[in-house]
Structures are given as structure tokens and as C-alpha cells.
Write a structure and sequence with these properties.
Layout (H helix, E strand, L loop, with lengths): L4 H14 L7 H10 L21 H10 L11 H14 L2 H12 L5 E4 L15 E5 L2 E8 L10 E7 L10 E7 L5 E6 L8 E12 L3 E2 L5 H17 L10 H10 L6 H28 L7 H24 L24 H8 L9 H12 L20
Length: 394
């Protein structure tokens, strides 16, 4: 029997009494929370959860927040939490789950995603990074790009081609790659913001043990789709308060600076405020649907909305602030650990939002997913799906 909300609240209070936040080291507290099943309550027992409904996580979080307990810095480890963990849970061996989930959740090991390539971004299934079997290892050679957190990551989720004689969606295998291994080289990619939160990663003769393969050989596309669906839900379905996120600084500037107001800007602000609220409520509904099972293609629709709204809202903010909106306070080349939309100035938000329609799946690809897998429309004609990968034009 899974615990009730009241039982979870009691269990959390008992845990806090045994591990008072004020007197417990942060790392020790987080490890103990995982072991108590209070990390993600919908995960199985022994893996940070209690096999409880996902919706009851809010009960645990409220008790911990009220007690001033430390969190696991979810923005810094978002790729691990939102992408690697659910994929390992779905396809990993027991040994893999026991090895990776606890340090991942506690923030002791940061993860990144080695999927996109210079010649295979939107068409991810056309990837060319090769993995060749050598007894108990796989030898990987190739290049990945647009890799957030690669400069801080210990582990990566990686897909590589293991059979070029099969069509592009087949012959792909999914691996867990140690970013500290010989042959892994991370180079910064400076962006329009001046920073380099993205990276390109070169893999030269990297040896990955077969024990770090996730799923069966050739099952990589299926496993990757699980990762991608979770990624889009984590991007588009983030929990934010009313008038939170990108709309917050625009609304604050509108209230504080009446001299900047015009009727045209007022109409646009009201429209975008309403759309942001609708998106927030839709994201909440999506999270509730997740309690019944794995995420589906609906997350692509939320991610589409997130990208469009961020770009339109940040554009409105720059126009509202007029000349001030054109200022950019700091062009220093940095390699940040996370993206901070709300803690920066309007110029940063405007420039950084341009990437929202590319990262996590381009808007064009997501529109196809929504059309085909949500609306049930026929797919576009394609002549490359059944050709061996080695015969594709490149």
C-alpha cells in the first residue's frame, strides 16, 4: 500500500526530527533524504522513493521547505533530474540504478547530454558518432555540440551509431559516458549572450564498458525518445507561481515605471500575461497527468509554448524599457553552471530567449511531433527512413 498524504507528512516530520537541517551537513542531509524515500516519492523504494503517487511529492516538499531544509539545487542538476534519471529508471539494470540515481539526485554528480551533432541536430537520428565493440568495451569516436553543462559534468547520456548498415533510426545504442575518461575533450561555445554555457564535445577513442550501455544494442532510438519526452516536459512544464517566470520583470517594470506606458504596449502586455497564465495552468495539468504514467508527446506542445512566450515577452520588455532595454551590462566570457533568466537584465533575457526555439528540440521538429502524435495527422513523405544509414546523402 502506498502512503497517504497524512502518512507522508508524518514521515517527513519524523525524518526532520532525526535530521534537523540546522545541525546536519547539507550533503549528509540530502543522502539521508534519498535513503528515506523522500527524494522523489513516486520512484520505487530503495531508489529514493516510496512508490507513492507523484502528486504527493508536494506534501513532502512543503514540510521540508517550512523547516528550512536544503534542496538539491535542481537548476544546476536539471539534466540529470529531468532526463538521465527517468531514462535510467526505465531502462537501467538494477546495478545501474543503484550506482547512479543517489549521487545524481543529491547533486554529487552533474550530468550532460551528448545527443546533437554538427550534422545531426534537428534530424537527430542521422547522427554519425560511432561506437565499435571491442570485447567488453565500446570505442567511441565523434563530435557532439550544444552540450549544456559539459564543462561541469561527471557523466553524460550518449547515443552513438553501432550499426551503419541499418536505417538511421535503427543501429543506434545508448550509453552512459564518463566525462573524465581519456579521449573526452570539452570546448566552450560562446553564445550571443557573450557566455559559454554550451559546449562542443570531441570523443576520440573513448572506451565505454558494456556495463554502461543503457538498454539493448540497437535500442538507442527508443531509449532516446524517453529522454527527449522527459526533457520537453521538464522544460515546458516547470512549476512557477502566478505571474512568475519571464512575465514577472515585465509586469514589475510596468507597475514601477508609468512614464513608459502606451496603449499599444498595454494591449500586448495583457495578451502575453494571459497567455503566460494559461501556459502555467496547462503545465500544472500536464504534471498531474504524469502521475498516471510516463510523459507523452504533449510535452512537445508545452515546450513550443514556452519558447514562443519567452521570445515574445522578452521582446516586449526591451520595447517597454526603450533605450534602457538596449543596454547590456556585462559581456564577460564566462562558463556558467546554469541559465538565470530572471536574475539578469532585459538585454540578457532577450538574447538568451532566442535559443529557446532551438534547444531541447527545434520548434519546427516539435510542430511535426504535435501534428503527427497528438493531432494524428499524416506524416510528411520521406524517402530516407528505410535506407541504410551508410547510404544516406551527407
Amino acid at each position: 500500500m502506498s502512503p497517504t498524504a497524512a502518512e507522508l507528512a508524518t514521515r517527513t516530520r519524523e525524518f526532520l526530527a532525526a535530521h534537523p537541517p540546522a545541525g546536519t551537513d547539507r550533503a549528509t542531509f540530502l543522502r539521508a533524504r534519498f535513503d528515506a524515500g523522500l527524494a522523489w516519492v513516486h520512484y520505487p523504494e530503495g531508489l529514493g522513493g516510496l512508490a507513492a503517487p507523484r502528486t504527493l511529492q508536494a506534501v513532502v516538499d512543503a514540510e521540508l521547505e517550512a523547516a528550512g531544509a536544503p534542496d538539491n539545487d535542481p537548476r544546476r542538476i536539471g539534466i540529470g533530474l529531468g532526463m538521465a534519471a527517468p531514462t535510467i529508471l526505465a531502462y537501467g539494470t538494477e546495478e545501474q540504478k543503484q550506482r547512479f540515481l543517489r549521487p545524481l539526485w543529491a547533486g554529487e554528480e552533474v550530468w550532460c547530454q551528448l545527443f546533437s551533432e554538427p550534422g545531426a541536430g534537428s534530424d537527430l537520428a542521422a547522427l554519425g558518432t560511432r561506437a565499435v565493440r571491442d570485447r567488453d568495451d565500446w570505442v567511441v569516436d565523434g563530435q557532439k555540440v550544444w552540450t549544456s553543462s559539459a564543462h561541469t559534468a561527471r557523466w553524460a547520456i550518449l547515443i552513438a551509431r553501432t550499426d551503419p548498415d541499418l536505417p538511421k533510426h535503427q543501429g543506434i545504442t545508448y550509453f552512459l559516458c564518463d566525462m573524465t575518461d581519456p579521449g573526452v575533450e570539452v570546448r566552450p561555445l560562446r553564445q550571443i549572450t557573450g557566455e559559454a554555457e554550451f559546449n562542443e564535445v570531441f570523443l576520440t577513442g573513448v572506451r565505454i564498458p558494456d556495463t554502461h550501455r543503457l538498454g539493448a544494442v540497437g535500442q538507442g532510438w527508443e531509449v532516446a525518445r524517453t529522454t527527449l519526452m522527459n526533457e520537453r516536459v521538464s522544460i515546458g512544464g516547470m512549476r512557477i507561481p502566478r505571474e512568475g517566470g519571464m512575465i514577472a520583470p515585465v509586469a514589475a517594470a510596468w507597475r514601477a515605471r508609468p512614464e513608459l506606458r502606451t496603449h499599444a504596449l498595454h494591449d500586448r502586455l495583457l495578451t502575453l500575461w494571459t497567455e503566460a497564465e494559461v501556459a502555467r495552468l496547462a503545465a500544472e495539468r500536464l504534471r498531474q497527468q504524469l502521475a498516471a504514467g510516463r510523459p507523452g508527446p504533449e510535452g512537445s506542445g508545452m515546450k513550443l509554448t514556452f519558447a514562443r512566450l519567452n521570445q515574445e515577452i522578452s521582446g516586449l520588455e526591451v520595447e517597454l524599457l526603450a533605450e534602457e532595454g538596449l543596454l547590456y551590462k556585462d559581456w564577460t566570457m564566462r562558463r556558467p553552471e546554469l541559465v538565470d533568466f530572471t536574475g539578469r537584465d532585459a538585454g540578457y533575457r532577450y538574447l538568451r530567449a532566442k535559443g529557446n526555439s532551438i534547444e531541447g528540440g527545434t520548434s519546427e521538429v516539435l510542430l511535426n511531433i504535435v501534428a503527427e502524435r497528438v493531432l494524428g495527422l499524416p506524416s510528411e513523405p520521406r524517402d530516407d527512413k528505410d535506407l541504410p544509414w551508410k547510404d544516406l546523402a551527407r
